[in-house]
Design brief:
By secondary structure, the chain is of the alpha+beta class. The protein has 2 domains: 4-59, no CATH class; 64-211, tt1808, chain A (Alpha-Beta Complex). It is 24% helix and 26% strand. It contains 4 helices and 12 strands, in the order ααββαβββββαβββββ. It has a 6-stranded mixed β-sheet, sandwiched between helices. The protein has a two-stranded antiparallel ribbon with strand order 1-2. It has a two-stranded antiparallel sheet with strand order 4-5. The termini are far apart. 31% of the residues are buried.
Amino acid sequence: MMNAAVSWTMADRLEELGHISAERIRLFPAPGTATVDDLMDANTHCKPLCELIDQTLVEKAGGFRSSVVAATIGSIIGHFVSRRRLGLVAGADGMFRLLASTVRAPDVAFVSREQLPDGKFPTEAYPAFSPDLVVEVLSPGNTKAEMSRKRVEYFHSGTRLVWMVDCVNRSVAVYTSPSAVRILNEDDTIDGGEVLPEFSSPVADFFTDLDFGRE
């Protein structure tokens, strides 16, 4: 009897990855055979940044607008966390090994002190734990199915809070599970829930730089 994987096509792989564009798939190593070492080599020598998803190297969707918003959010969270010595805040090139065959690079991630091995800074390039808070800023190349898969992976791996940030509508979808969501707009204030008690910020502050030069 033929192994089902033998008859797989690139269309099957793209569907499994969330109906993403074929342009984002690296063909070397062959999809389904890539390792963490391959990911490290790719991110050292090539651009754009790749994630490892089911042993497949996938270029991370990005853009200038989403990058600016992610940097702003990282700065806001980082200032709060740093002053209280609560843990670490990483940017998009801070990657996490969620599963044996999957390494993700959230746009912003908060890792509490309790998550860190012995409370110390991790030495691995891709630490094998999940952030407490993940922020993903949507880029034009992202698909709904891709982001849904990401949420499932994060929560399955131990993440407790996920923010999906929409730069076009200037809103934040706050997830406390893969499907439990509330939408906050610019007139709202976002908080850190149980992950970052006492943290709060106007949602509008996340997007303030998008109005640069319009004053």
